[in-house]
Structures are given as structure tokens and as C-alpha cells.
Amino acid sequence: MKNRISKYINTLCPDGVKYKELHEILTIKNGSDYKGFGEGDIPVYGSGGIMTYIDTFAYDKPTVLIPRKGSIDKLYYVDTPFWNVDTVFYTEIDITKAIPRYVYHCLLREHLEQYNTAGGVPSLTQKVLNKVKIPVPPIEIQREIVKVLDNFTELTAELTAELTARKKQYEYYRDLLLDFGGSRQTDAVHGGGTSECEWRTLGEIATIVRGASPRPIKNFVTDDKNGVHWIKIGDVLPDSKYITATQERITPDGAAKSRFVHKGDFILSNSMSFGRPYILQIDGCIHDGWLSISDFEDYVSSDYLYHILTSGQIQQEMKKRASFGGAVQNLNSDIVKAIEIPIPKKSEQDRIVSILDRFDKLCNDISEGLPAEIEARRKQYEYYRDKLLSFEEVRT
Q: How far is CA 326 from CA 269, 290, 329, 351, in A?
């Protein structure tokens, strides 16, 4: 395929390729409000993707959607009728000059976030976008490049779909294996429980405390490599089970005013996206946006506790019990202490963990599982995209 592209280049543009500003090949259009339309099957796009569905479309030809503000690094190629709100532009592309899908790949390569014009919420303007230049070779070459690059994106999409299916499979088996039926109260009704599983509150089996923040924190942040790890939500990798490093450290004085936690302890965020557990692989300090769970080893293994805390049953229980601080739901240590969890024999805990860890590794391991394969394909796509879209510019 690459040899075919090279032959096209040697035949059709041996002296180089023209680079054109976007306004020379397309027209950027604003979005508008969709309220007042009925429900339907036409997707409504915002800067974060599909928002809802209505019965009216704004445009029905292939286009590239470019976020105007917010997630400006996310582009969308759409080749079916759609509506777009005012946080995202759509493009009317002159198909005699450029294939819409080719424009999409070019703009991904361009990393439009570099053209951010705002100091607060990232944003793009038509004026800035119209001046962005991309290579515009003959249509035949564009078509061949699209074929090559789409092979990579299709494979990545297939792997992503498989990952989604595997995550659902993991969640299904996790909730099935961890459904011991009822609670300590229901066990008591049936004679005080069974020898296979007992129910205890987290407060009975673990120490649960809230973090603390030295203030103002900027006075305690240090560049000293011997400083204490300062653990923030930004240090958490997506879908990660562990926290392995921090971006910042604080001084010993700051640590004395905070909550020190140890490797092996759990921490839970207590507001916003609350209740997601992480296991520490480092010692450090947590601020008051975290709760810590420690001293549970006499009852449950670390891996078993991780799976039970992420289970649908416990996550729903946390959500139901979370108190409201204004419009934001919050956890506190008393809520978490009162949550009951099933505690089977250690041998049964180990059996459950061995099954669920295999699913978890496949879904979340960034070195071996599907995420690692998806990341490899993404890098492969970017490599070939950058090679194929790097043309010598024609001198006029």
C-alpha cells in the first residue's frame, strides 16, 4: 500500500504537495440550540460527544466536527445526519479538493489543542482554525492514505469494543461471585448466619479515617526528592487498581498536619466521583478529599477487599447512603464504617480473587491486557499517520 502511495506521489506530484489553509478547502459552521425539536434518532453532538437524539438534522454530509470549547482535542468524523450545539463546529468540506475522512486524519495529526486561545476553558475560534494549514495532495493519494490509516483505526475500534465487552463480563462475574445473599440482618433471621460467610461492617474490621490538608498547601509543597508523597486524584491512572507515584511531595511539617498512609492501605475519594477504591503501593499523605482504610488483614485479603468495594452492590450502597453537601454527594468515615460486607473463609476469598484477577488483568493491565494492545495500535496508527502525512511542500 505504501509503495502504491509512493508511485502516486512520483507520478502526480513529484515536485511536492501544496499545503492549504483550511478556509481554502472547507467552511467552518457554528452549531445551535436543539431545544424545541422532538425526540428522534438524529444524534446531537457537543464538545464531549453525543448528548441526546432529536428528529431534525443540521447537516447530512460527511464532516469533521471540531469542538469550539472544552474538550478541543476530541474530533469527530460523522457521515450520517446530525445536529451540533454551539460548543462544537461542523465543516462543509469541498470534496473536489479534499476527502472528509482525509481531513479528519490531518486534523488529528495537527493536535488542535495547541491553538487554544483562552486562559480558562480551552477554546478555538474560526479565525484561528481557518489559518491552520494541511497538505492537500491529489484525491487519489488522499484516498490511498485514508485506506491505510482506517485499517489501524478499525482495528483499534474492534479492540476497544472487545475491551468494553470484557469489562461487562468482569462486572457480571464479580457481582455474581460476591453475591452471598443478604446481610448480617437477614442472616440473623435465618439462624445467625452460615459457616461459609459472615457479614461485618467495615468499621468492625478496619480502621477508617479521613485525610487532612495542611493549609495553605502551597507553603508545604517541596521539590525535595526526600519529601513525603502528596497523593491527589490526578495521580490516579484511569481504571487503575493501584497508586504508584505522585506528582508532588510535601515537607515533613506538611505531613505532620496531614494524614499519613502506608503502602497496602486503601484510599477512597469522598466527594464528586466518590467511593472508588485504590490500593497504595507507596507511603504518603492524603488530603481531606480522601478516606483511608487500613488494618483489615485479619478478616479479608487486600485483593478480595478491592473487588468487594468495587462491586455493584457496595457501590450502590455507598451512593444510597452518601450525604448531600449542597448539590454534591459526599461520603464520610461514618457512612463507610456502617457499610456491611460479606466475609467468606480465606480459601473462598482466594478462589474468588483468582477468577476476578484474570478478568481485571485483561481489562486494565496497561502492560499485558487489552489496554496495552490498544495503546500499541494507537501508537502504530500515529506513527504511520505522521509518516504518510509528511509531504515535501511544493515550491511555487
A: 17, 19, 8, 43
What number of residues does the chain have? Answer: 396
Instruction: Determine whether 114 is exposed, middle or buried from the number of CB atoms within 10 Å of its CB (0-12, 13-18, 19+).
Output: exposed
pLDDT < 50 stretches in the chain: 186-195
Whether 190 maps to a domain, the answer reads no
Q: Can you give the pLDDT at residue 155?
A: 87
The model's pLDDT over 305-361, given as tens digits with 9 standing for 90+, comes to: 999 999 998 999 898 888 655 555 688 999 999 999 999 999 999 999 999 888 777
Residue 288, domain member (yes or no): yes
Establish if 192 belongs to a structural domain: no
Do residue 243 and residue 278 come from a single domain?
Answer: yes
Both 49 and 3 in a single domain? no
- My answer on whether 372 and 335 are in the same domain is no
> Residue 321's domain is classified under what CATH number?
3.90.220.20
Report pTM: 0.63
CB neighbour burial string for 319-352, b if at least 16 within 10 angstroms, e if fewer? eebbeeeeeebbbbbebbbebbbbbbeeebbeeb
Q: What's the confidence (pLDDT) of residue 188?
A: 44
Which residues form the domain of 24? 18-136
Same domain, 131 and 269: no
